[in-house]
Amino acid sequence: MGSPTPAYDPNAAPAVDALAAGTRSLRILSANIQAGSSTRRYSDYVTRSWSHALPAGRKRSSLDAIAQLASGHDIVGLQEADPGSLRSGFTNQTHYLAQRGGFDYWKHQPNRSVGGVASSANGLLSRLEPVRTAGHSLPGRIKGRGVLMAHFGDDREGLAVAVAHLSLGAKSRMAQLSFIAEVLQDHPNAVLMGDFNCLPDQPEMEVLYRNTTLRPPECPVPTFPSWKPQRAIDHILVSGELKCRGSKAFPAAFSDHLALAMEIEVPETALRT
Asked: What would the pLDDT profile of 134-184 be if each residue is shown by its tens digit?
């Protein structure tokens, strides 16, 4: 039996002295921020449904709390970040979090808009400058899902980071994961993070493990619902070339998902341009 994965501490300095030669420690965070809305119990989905359409409640203070959490990381993937509709007070939440969290680089991928009242996007915050970014629409019975890609370092050997928000239905997820596997199959250094809406051992996840170097999490962390986490449906998957140095879940203000954090070791060569 191998040694247990060490606990993740977002406030501790990276254990540089323990890193393998030629590697760099990166802190990764994935968070479904629910556009800054508050959900603390199942009944809130009904009683607070107005917060998903109106610029009311404490969204700005929730975003500030998420920015504080994000600031302790190097690369952050966001799901359900509002790109600037009525419910966010026309604030691009990815940009806002980048400014408040002290990130020099940010990118967003709007995926779904409901009449301009409520919009949703994947987002990326980074302290490292990506060589390029790209957004891809994902297949599915209902449109409005996507994967946001960022590439760091040399084209093939460089680090590829993908942020995704998958569908609720298994058939749609299968098609979406097949698409993502095709995009990532040629990248030996890859990170895929986001809200998968499924457990890591679901049958549709096998398409990733078979066709890419991504591997299942060593110790899945429950993230949903945030007030009583029972299901591990938010994931940070890393390729075989990368080493996980610990993971942990944290509140993303009052989102219905906990944020998932992980520290990884990345070959320095994967970050060189």
From this structure: 999 999 888 889 999 999 998 778 999 999 999 999 999 999 999 999 999
Secondary structure class of 61 (helix, strand, coil): helix
Backbone angles phi, psi at 126, to 5 degrees: -150, 140
Right CATH for 22-271 from 3.90.550.10, 3.60.10.10, 3.40.50.300, 3.50.30.10: 3.60.10.10
For residue 146, give the nearest of 134, 158, 133, 164 by alpha carbon: 164
Token pair, residue 143, equals 């449109």
The Cα-based distances of 179 to 137, 166, 261 in angstroms read: 10, 11, 25
Helices (H), 187-236: 206-211
**Which tokens go with 2?**
């191998």
Token pair 């989905």 is found at: 45
d(CA 32, CA 235): 11
